[in-house]
Design a protein that fits this description.
This protein is mainly α and 247 residues long. It has twelve helices and no strands. The protein has one domain. α11 runs antiparallel to α12. The radius of gyration is 20 Å and the shape is globular.
Length: 247
């Protein structure tokens, strides 16, 4: 019951702010534009019978880039706002565990993104009404998108736990996500001895197979491990209040 109360409190905080609605409106406008332009380009230049497969791969790569751009706008307030307002002390002194606080904030963020990203299901529905297709690739795309968002949201939550300034949290979160996404894009600048390590850390390289309809447990393990590691660092950040208070 305590966890449910925390979770509902976080959701109310999100939807009481106009930010979620503004972010949702911008996302819908951009994703709709990408859907129209990607579909128009594929019809114009033609890909034969594989036009739908190419559409999902191209469209959802574009949509994911929008999503990871707006992640910092949602996660920046999770801890930073409560620190700046002083309400974080009330939360820490309440009879709840740190893990319950973290999970309630994480699940509230994921619920917001589920509602935002879930709106993109309209695009396959419109295509299916005109020309039915095998939607097995879509399951892979949405699984990959969920795992990617889970990891990026945890990155944002961890950075938000380090500062009181929401703007700083948003800037550093965007920088960290952009670095993870683009880490392997300039291979010429990476020493050969580091190439394999960098390739394993690049989020784009792990998401791209999902966009092609390929589910590989190595890529699933990457996103799950990143989410767990960021959650662990957030817990350590929350516990730091004890030694800082003693000092």
């Amino acid at each position: 019951m305590r966890f449910l109360a925390l979770f509902l409190k976080e959701l109310r905080t999100f939807f009481a702010s106009p930010l979620v609605y503004i972010v949702s409106a911008v996302f819908l406008a951009l994703s709709g534009w990408y859907f129209y332009t990607d579909l128009d380009a594929l019809i114009t230049f033609g890909f034969g019978e594989s036009i739908v497969d190419h559409l999902w791969q191209r469209l959802y790569n574009d949509i994911v880039r929008i999503l990871i751009t707006v992640v910092p706008l949602i996660t920046m307030r999770v801890y930073a706002e409560e620190k700046s307002l002083g309400t974080i002390e009330l939360l820490y002194t309440a009879p709840v565990r740190d893990i319950e606080i973290l999970l309630s904030k994480y699940l509230a963020c994921m619920t917001v993104f589920a509602m935002i990203a879930g709106s993109t299901a309209l695009y396959p529905y419109l295509i299916y009404r005109v020309s039915p297709f095998d939607y097995s690739q879509l399951w892979s795309v949405y699984l990959g998108g969920f795992l990617l968002l889970s990891a990026m949201v945890m990155v944002g939550i961890f950075i938000s736990s380090l500062t009181e300034a929401q703007l700083i949290a948003a800037m550093f979160t965007y920088g960290a996500i952009l670095l993870l996404w683009n880490l392997n894009w300039n291979e010429a600048a990476i020493p050969d001895s580091w190439g394999g390590i960098v390739a394993q850390l690049c989020a784009f390289d792990h998401f791209e197979p999902f966009a092609r309809g390929v589910v590989d447990m190595r890529h699933v393990a990457y996103f799950v491990s990143l989410s767990v590691f960021m959650g662990y660092l957030t817990m350590r950040s929350m516990e730091s209040r004890e030694w800082r208070g003693r000092r």
